[in-house]
């Protein structure tokens, strides 16, 4: 990969986890071995203006060229998000639409969850050859669809073998052109809707079912879970309880490293807060998704009787919707 070529990175963040994002970006910057520039497509899920200002203080413009994308701009207005039963926020589904809101000529993009930190220079991730695969990822902690812990209870009905591997959707190396050609977004959304009872980790479930045995398995160190004891990870992923809570009980060395980078940001005085806040946040996410679906249905009904939606946000989202619709029809 050319040294002067910008690397495309996508992540999604809300106001609560902005300090996690600041820490992730700082860790990436600090661990670079040579000057590198990233095109960062940052999906903003209602980040407050004061929080955004703190983020901009933390982000080095010489390293990250930030392209702000609101969650409304990232999600096409003509498709309803799945109504799963999880406590994950609706923004987890945004990763499904990445190929539609980034520049259409790009052939490779990396998605990272915000609850990660870089332990080493991660630029070699963009040099991995996907071959004929449209996705590269790391095997999940559950490892197989038949796992009693977070496996897929209906894997047999889906026609999957018991040893079918599951990947974690926290890090995705994507070929967006192949993604659009194979209509992955629409297929995944449909899969989650039809199997909501089994979609404990909704976006991840849908991706794994649709792309079963069709993804490139990457080195586990690219997505090293906080429950691991790996001493030389490339990226650390704080799945489960985040290091910002007093209830965090996983690898303490990883937590210390997280705070090492956090102290380099405007959140340098932050101290862990009580775990009950995490539980409250999860229930808030669940309620918000129900409200979203209700609003979607009411808006659709109103648009039907009014002759079409006129809401400004709807019109702003037409560019993403247009690309999404054109590509889906082209390869139907």
TrEMBL record:
Gene Ontology molecular function, alphabetical: glycosyltransferase activity; metal ion binding
Disordered: annotated segments: 312-332
Short name of any one Pfam family annotated for the protein: Glyco_transf_8
Coiled-coil parts of chain: none
Domain of life: Bacteria
UniProt keyword list: Glycosyltransferase, Metal-binding, Transferase
InterPro entries on file: Glyco_trans_8, Glycosyltrans_8_dom-fam, Nucleotide-diphossugar_trans
Protein name: Lipopolysaccharide biosynthesis protein, LPS:glycosyltransferase
